[in-house]
Amino acid sequence: MGAVDPLVRGREAYGRLAWRDAYEQLADADRREPLDSGDLERLAQAAYLVGALDAAMGAWERSHHAHLDRGDAAAAARCAFWLGLTLFLQGEHARGGGWLGRAQRILQKAALDCAEQGYLRVPLAVGALDAGDPEGAYRGFVEIGEIAERFDDADLRAFGTLGQGQALVAQGRAAEGVARLDEAMVAVTTGEVSPIVSGIVYCAVILACRGIYDLRRMHEWTAALSRWCARQQDLQPYRGQCMVHRSEIMQVRGEWADAMDEAARACEHLSALPGDPVMGMALYQRGELFRLRGEFSRAEDCYREARDRGHSAQPGLALLRLAQGRPADATTAIRRTLVETEGGEERLRVLVGYVEIELAAGAVEDAQLAVDELDKIADAFDSPYLRAVAAYAHGSVLLAAGDPEAACIALRRAWTAWQENGAPYEAARVRLQMARAYRQVGDHDTAGMELRAAREVFQRLGAVPALEQVRELMGDTVRAGVGGLTPREVEVLRLIATGASNQQIADRLVISDRTVARHVSNMFTKLGVSSRAAATAYAYEHDLV
């Protein structure tokens, strides 16, 4: 009995989703006596789910050959499909295509009408979608769904329904698309679909919701994915992407500290999976948070590393250049990026950054063209988030064009939308812009109220660059001579009072750490204090914050 115990334990662990235990016990059993084709498939899936990809591919390959030896062409083709798909996801397109070609040849030779014929159509339909042919992709996924129904294959049905939803969204038929995506998720959440396919569907649906800025669905399905991941021992794929999406949701909700922690955990988790493209997404998310908090050098490091991992550094890097006082660099980068970005979610993100940068450069007409495109996208998807984005951009352009009355109306609409979306930072940015508009129409009291409300949010979030904009608008100019401090030392004192570190101050003022340290030392001496807490108290006592 001793020799079969690992196999029994491995099968039992596999049944309760204990992937690490299943992998180790099945591998132990295989070392004692070679596993049959069914147990090799269990070993392959458990290895895949704990991130042991080489072991997974080795087990699938052995299972493939075992099925061929038994004359089971359909099962052999399915193993070849999973080998090909895994290699494709790892970026090994030549090897992946080879295995998919072998699977096709096996089925043709056997003249089989089986579910595996549908599996081999999945990469073709995905390829059509990636190539910008959503109509062709949709037809392909409908055929996949029909094959799935004929053979009652839940995994294939999930692929077909998911793909139909993605293709409909890509066609601009968002309402129909998300209905199909929700249908795919029902099969996943009720346990009808195998773990690997479930993970693929979870991540694809959340990305689709993210692409059309359907934050409600994105939040709902990310929470479901988080629960799904938590139920499975040592799950490696999917968990990192879940963390990135959780961080993005936390950021929108104004939970920036938690968002930073979650993004850092995502990077740590993904570091164990070399080559995972989600790492670029995680690094970009960290860069965004650092930029918004004024930690510019750390933001730049993240953007550059994200780009090295295959993820675009824009529009974040261009917005960073604008915040650093380098508008020419920002304008050059964002214009080039917009030309190179043809469509989809990425273009929308670039358009938002483009409007902000072009307005800063005084190119109001160019910004208006981008706003017109944003309006069309928002109308097509009917997303509350996109309506808020478009209204803010529209109001900003009206303000820059010299029409503050109309700007106030558009910005008030944007503020209401951001409030409904539960996005405090974005709502506070609108209030900052409304303050500018109210000042131009001579309503200084309302402008002051908007500024104070925005300042409270920015202080809570630690949004140092935005706080600086509030200070400038409030006319709180740097006063030389207070406590014998120079204007630069007063700036440093103000930033210390926000809780900023020397590195953060250096980022914000675009000076070196050493220069900041010298200013801090001189300031402490002049004020007769010996700690940052005492310096902060002095700043509040003398109305410098």
Structure in words:
- It comes from Streptomyces fuscus.
- This is LuxR C-terminal-related transcriptional regulator.
- It holds the Pfam family GerE.
- Residues 478-543 form the HTH luxR-type domain.
- With 545 residues, the protein is mainly alpha-helical.
- Among the domains are: 383-473, Tetratricopeptide repeat domain (Serine Threonine Protein Phosphatase 5, Tetratricopeptide repeat, Alpha Horseshoe), CATH 1.25.40; 482-541, Winged helix-like DNA-binding domain superfamily/Winged helix DNA-binding domain (Arc Repressor Mutant, subunit A, Orthogonal Bundle).
- Helices cover 78% and strands 0% of the residues.
- The protein has 30 helices and no strands.
- Helix 10 runs parallel beside helix 12.
- The longest helix is centred in the first third of the chain and has 18 residues, at 93-110.
- Mean pLDDT is 90; it is low at 476-481.
Overview features:
0% strand, 545 residues, single chain, 30 helices, mainly alpha, Serine Threonine Protein Phosphatase 5, Tetratricopeptide repeat, Arc Repressor Mutant, subunit A
Top CATH class of one domain: Mainly Alpha
N-to-C SSE string, H for helix and E for strand: HHHHHHHHHHHHHHHHHHHHHHHHHHHHHH
Give the biggest sheet: none
Question: What's the CATH architecture of one domain?
Answer: Alpha Horseshoe
How much of the sequence lies in strands comes to: under 5%
Short recap of the structure:
This protein is mainly α. Among the domains are: 383-473, Serine Threonine Protein Phosphatase 5, Tetratricopeptide repeat, CATH 1.25.40.10; 482-541, Arc Repressor Mutant, subunit A. The chain is built from 30 helices and no strands.
